């Protein structure tokens, strides 16, 4: 499952500054299309980040309602807030860079949430925490891959700025799992 998180203040400002104007060719010529500037890796990151955000928002909403443990409900609320904020920045970046985003979370994430949603009480909490921990670990790997192989400074800044929040979520999830 791919999950992504939001950024903290300076990261958002830096990313938005990078995205602030129309792209200009390296020789100072007329603006170039965003698609021409964005590598396959950058497009992949934006699409997966968006789908992950959609999955996290849905999972957080379910946890707020079905969580038996206060920590699960609380983390669910944080995920909704953070992933909503991140997704706004991802959508803005994708729009400025002319990258089409999927309309829904990945099929495997939707199916996982449906399976977990059928559970109740402590069984729900355990399954939800396990899924969220795996997703946050995958999100960290996705961000690392973008930082290593991405080419767009704006997209790389999104990945860089998201990492501390992903780690914070992962730490909270691991504490709740114990």
How would you explain this protein's 3D organization?
This protein is mostly helical. The chain has seven helices and no strands. It has helices spanning 9-19, 34-37, 40-66, 70-96, 107-117, 121-149, 153-177. The radius of gyration is 17 Å and the shape is elongated.
Number of helices: 7
Could you tell me how far the N terminus lies from the C terminus, measured between alpha carbons in angstroms? 21 Å
Gyration radius from CA atoms, angstroms: 17 Å
DSSP E strands, number: 0
> How big a fraction of the residues is strand?
under 5%
**Global outline:** elongated
Mean pLDDT comes to: 83
Largest sheet: none
Helix content: over 70%
Order of helices and strands: HHHHHHH
Structural class: mainly alpha
Low-confidence stretches: 1-35
Protein name: Membrane protein
Pfam families: DUF4142
Keywords: Signal
InterPro entries: DUF4142, Ferritin-like
Helix and strand topology:
Blueprint: H1 9-19, H2 34-37, H3 40-66, H4 70-96, H5 107-117, H6 121-149, H7 153-177
Helix pairs in contact: 1-7, 3-4, 3-5, 3-6, 4-7, 5-6, 6-7
Describe what is shown at a glance.
With 178 residues, the chain is an all-alpha fold. The protein has helices at 9-19, 34-37, 40-66, 70-96, 107-117, 121-149, 153-177. This is Membrane protein.
Question: Could you list some keywords that capture this structure?
Answer:
178 residues, mainly alpha, 75% helix, Membrane protein, Ferritin-like
């Amino acid at each position: 499952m791919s999950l992504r998180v939001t950024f903290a203040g300076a990261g958002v400002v830096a990313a938005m500054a990078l995205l602030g104007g129309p792209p200009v060719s390296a020789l100072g010529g007329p603006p170039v299309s965003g698609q021409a500037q964005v590598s396959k890796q950058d497009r992949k990151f934006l699409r997966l980040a968006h789908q992950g955000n959609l999955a996290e928002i849905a999972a957080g909403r379910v946890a707020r309602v079905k969580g038996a443990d206060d920590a699960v409900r609380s983390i669910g609320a944080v995920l909704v807030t953070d992933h909503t904020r991140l997704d706004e920045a991802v959508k803005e970046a994708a729009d400025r860079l002319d990258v089409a985003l999927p309309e829904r979370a990945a099929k495997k994430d939707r199916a996982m949430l449906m399976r977990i949603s059928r559970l109740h009480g402590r069984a729900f909490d355990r399954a939800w925490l396990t899924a969220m921990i795996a997703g946050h670990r995958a999100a960290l790997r996705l961000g690392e891959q973008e930082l290593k192989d991405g080419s767009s400074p704006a997209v790389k800044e999104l990945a860089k700025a998201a990492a501390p929040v992903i780690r914070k979520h992962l730490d909270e999830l691991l504490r709740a799992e114990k």
